[in-house]
């Protein structure tokens, strides 16, 4: 389609027990590089003019998970909708595994870790852990920890103040004491985390 009013993929209405601005949508999608879609809310699935709060998502050409947070939506709609952003004819977008879930008050997570992949024993290396606050509350009192296979803690650092729906990178220095083959990963430790 080459229409400016769609096409749309529209979910059934969300129960009025769950205000839309307390939800987020996780989904997997792929398309040719450079394609995008908008994720928003409709009050009337028969009227494209009611689509609002659209957040543009740039898509990868391989299956990738995306998350859209609706905490800033101010309307009264109840229909989560995906709008194809067009750009020409025969532009396919694939969407799968759509999950609509409640935003929690306290919900921190580590997204990725970067650092030296072949460290030498006795040398100090900095590892960067990307932390996201998926929750509604700002967080100031939490730790970011570096672990290796076997759930063995190697090092930790205090996390910075983090508003809801924001990210930060935390640097954790670590000095290996032995040479070994292992996997490193980051964890966020927050008392009262509702999604740990």
Task: Please tell me about this protein's structure.
By secondary structure, this protein is mainly beta. The chain has no helices and 13 strands. The protein has strands spanning 8-10, 23-31, 36-42, 52-58, 64-69, 79-84, 93-102, 108-114, 125-133, 143-148, 152-158, 166-174, 184-189. The strands form four sheets. A four-stranded antiparallel β-sheet has the order 1-6-3-4, with no helix packed on it. Strand 10 and strand 11 (152-158) form a beta hairpin. The chain is elongated and about 65 Å long. The termini are far apart. The mean pLDDT is 91.
Write the layout of secondary structure elements.
Elements: E1 8-10, E2 23-31, E3 36-42, E4 52-58, E5 64-69, E6 79-84, E7 93-102, E8 108-114, E9 125-133, E10 143-148, E11 152-158, E12 166-174, E13 184-189
Task: Looking at this protein, list some descriptive labels.
196 residues, mainly beta, 0% helix, elongated
Mean pLDDT score, rounded? 91
Q: Helix and strand succession?
A: EEEEEEEEEEEEE
Net shape: elongated
Spatial gap, N to C terminus:
43 Å
Pick out the low-confidence regions: none
Number of separate helices: 0
Query: Major sheet: order of its strands?
Result: 1-6-3-4
Strand runs, count: 13
Structural class: mainly beta
Whole-number radius of gyration?
20 Å
The proportion of strand residues reads over 45%
The biggest sheet amounts to:
4 strands, antiparallel
Provide a compact summary of the structure:
The chain has strands spanning 8-10, 23-31, 36-42, 52-58, 64-69, 79-84, 93-102, 108-114, 125-133, 143-148, 152-158, 166-174, 184-189. The chain has 196 residues and is mainly β.
């Amino acid at each position: 389609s080459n229409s400016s009013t769609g096409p749309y993929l529209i979910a059934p209405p969300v129960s009025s027990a769950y205000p839309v601005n307390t939800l987020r949508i996780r989904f997997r999608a792929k398309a040719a590089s450079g394609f995008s879609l908008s994720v928003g809310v409709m009050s009337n699935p028969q009227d494209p003019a009611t689509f609002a709060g659209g957040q543009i998502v740039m898509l990868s050409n391989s299956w990738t998970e995306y998350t859209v947070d609706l905490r800033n939506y101010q309307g009264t709609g109840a229909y989560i909708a995906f709008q194809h952003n067009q750009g020409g004819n025969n532009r396919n977008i694939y969407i799968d595994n759509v999950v609509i879930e409640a935003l929690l008050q306290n919900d921190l997570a580590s997204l990725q870790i970067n650092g030296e992949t072949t460290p030498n024993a006795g040398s100090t290396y900095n590892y960067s852990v990307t932390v996201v606050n998926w929750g509604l509350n700002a967080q100031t009192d939490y730790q970011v920890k570096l672990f290796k296979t076997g759930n063995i803690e190697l090092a930790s650092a205090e996390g910075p103040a983090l508003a809801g729906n924001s990210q930060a990178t935390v640097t954790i220095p670590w000095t290996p004491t032995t040479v070994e083959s292992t996997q490193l990963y980051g964890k966020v430790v927050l008392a009262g985390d509702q999604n740990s």
